């Protein structure tokens, strides 16, 4: 993927702060969340609706962060859904007595998946897409096998309910945990050497390597973090819902990739911030919460999400960017020609 | 014994030995598979073999159609399962107009859906994963909208569609369709300009663009072909099941990608063939069948497919590396 991205990098827009778009998206989603039900149906959204919408962020926000991190370094981790499902299963099965043992087990699953896949990608020079596709299938298969294709109940209901205790009326504990982890990630990467390292590995891997940066180690670590965060998200969600799903589907992947793209992560790597991804993930949760408030059918939300993804994919497409630049250049040169003709009229 | 590496140049004179090494590995793998197959009770019965071939037809048709996309270096499509489901629903939905018009409408819609994605990926150079995930959401959403998520049955009293689920000489029509598709696509990939350009673009897209090849159009057609094949599979699947739901595509998206990769078509594009994909689909179908006969469940089948994908991707990488030396 990174090979085909040279063209995209050359035309990168550097003048706009990349966090402006996701923050604007968040504000627009929040406004839509309040105004559309009010003006359209006379529904006043309350704290409970906000609380409900943000649960989506708790379920998939960390997956967005995980996938986003792999995209920033110019890779793509399809296996986030595999770690999400298998991690949740490990967490629920081993965390019945002590939920923290479950968390540790889930994180271990994600770390193992990340180490194996990361090493395959780095050591053998494989592309991350087929490797993580294989990893996804293996983890999905293991999830089905271990759970005997049945959802596994989480007996520790008290702990599950605790995770969904409201804070300040609008946050649940697990939303707060997710936000805290996003904050930690943002602090770790914002303006630090680690953040620059990630972006330089994604921006130009060959140059990073010749500068002596530990490219291989960065890739493996990012895949480890990606697996661990996804597994953690799956476990938090399963604890709160009191059940580990045997078949997660690709819903978390769809949410994560949409949030990462709106969050300013570029598909060609080298660009993206934790703040952007977090803001986009919260905005997306509010948008999906809006569909719930309006009681729209599921297919409607699918259609909207599909359209949003299409638009984002097209906006990031190098071909479109190039065409727009060419068009602008043409218009400018036409303008210039006209001005020149006015200043220096051609006399026959 | 310390390996000094000094004997390497003599024992491994470049490419030929390495490829025959790969060949040996392939033969060993096939031999192992055959050994397991022969010793598995109930595998070598006519009815089981027929069932295996029949089950392979659907994923085979989708995977063969997907092959040109992968060959062109555009990774793969994650939407073909949705296209299968949408087409199955659409086919039974418009069957009242007659069998041939219904097939034609379903295929044309499939082609348009694929071409639209191909335009985004080929002409605008959008990311194929994102575009096809988006297309999957849209197709699933539309199928749910039109069916209300209920099962679609063919019009009562109309029976002409059952011709699609018949089995002349004991082999389902869909298998004949798969064979025909492989022949047509192989000829198209080898004998037409489009086919040759697919390989060139997959090998080096920048060079293909610099040489003035119509990269966008070639990729648009590749996606249209894939989507049309998925539509065809949807028609057969609807006829086979005698009903259609929005869930009928099942795991076909990932299964078809697995078949392409297990067949040895390189994910980076440029090398592979339709025939290899059928081989990949056959290997997966046989392994799935063996696991089923030996009492393993769906999960083991999925995990085994994933492991197989990883192994083949690694082998293909080593072979292309040694070929490049």
Summarize the structure in short.
The complex is a heterodimer of chains A (348) and B (325). With 348 residues, chain A is mostly helical. Chain A has 15 helices and 4 strands.
Question: What topology does this entry show?
Answer:
The complex is a heterodimer of chains A (348) and B (325).
Chain A: H1 6-10, H2 20-41, H3 47-72, H4 80-94, H5 99-123, H6 128-146, E1 152-153, H7 157-163, E2 166-167, E3 171-172, H8 173-189, H9 193-203, H10 205-210, H11 215-241, E4 243-244, H12 251-262, H13 274-293, H14 298-316, H15 318-343
Antiparallel strand pairs in A: 1-4, 2-3
Chain B: H1 8-11, H2 15-39, H3 46-71, H4 80-93, H5 99-123, H6 128-147, H7 173-191, H8 193-203, H9 205-210, H10 215-241, H11 252-262, H12 274-293, H13 298-324
Main attributes of the structure:
heterodimer; A: mainly alpha; two-stranded antiparallel sheet; two-stranded antiparallel ribbon; disordered N terminus; B: 325 residues; mainly alpha
Largest beta-sheet details of chain B: none
Largest sheet, spatial ordering of strands of chain A: 1-4
Structural Rg of chain B: 21 Å
Treating each run of at least 4 consecutive H or I residues as one helix, how many helices of chain B?
A: 13
Written account of the structure:
The complex is a heterodimer of chains A (348) and B (325). Chain A contains 15 helices and four strands. Chain A is mainly alpha-helical and 348 residues long. Chain A has a two-stranded antiparallel ribbon. In chain A, strands 2-3 form a two-stranded antiparallel sheet. In chain A, strand 2 (166-167) and strand 3 (171-172) form a beta hairpin. The longest helix of chain A is centred in the middle third of the chain and has 27 residues, at 215-241. The radius of gyration of chain A is 22 Å and the shape is globular. Residues 1-16 of chain A have low confidence and may be disordered. Chain B is mainly α. Chain B is 72% helix and 0% strand. In chain B, helix 2 runs antiparallel to helix 13 and helix 4 packs antiparallel against helix 5. Mean pLDDT of chain B is 84; it is low at 1-18. Chains A and B meet through helix 6, helix 12, helix 14 and helix 15 of A and helix 6, helix 11 and helix 13 of B.
